[in-house]
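Running low. Any example?
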Amino acid sequence: MRYPSVQGFQGRRPSPQADEVEIGVTVVGSTRVRVILDPDWASLVCLRVAPGEAVQYLGVVTGADTDTPNLRLTTEQSWRFPTPEIRESLRGSVLALFAAWKERQ
């Protein structure tokens, strides 16, 4: 059986489309955080970055364009931001980075 989607490419694969947008890097306490916009979920993905280490997923900020954006940290990574003040600092820093990125667009 030949599938229509396969016939159309005739051996060629479609080029991959970028499904995320690099927003930038911010620092919260001693943690460098890379922020990526995932347009499918309208979320800002937060990744811990450190020289010589694998990137670690911290969580997401959802609803960045709303009045009440929400920070959702993974349970495994929440120890990096042990107080509500530091978690709020992360949320505010990520949102500020997103706002600056939007102004440049």
The longest helix spans residues 84-104. The first strand starts at residue 21 and ends at 28.
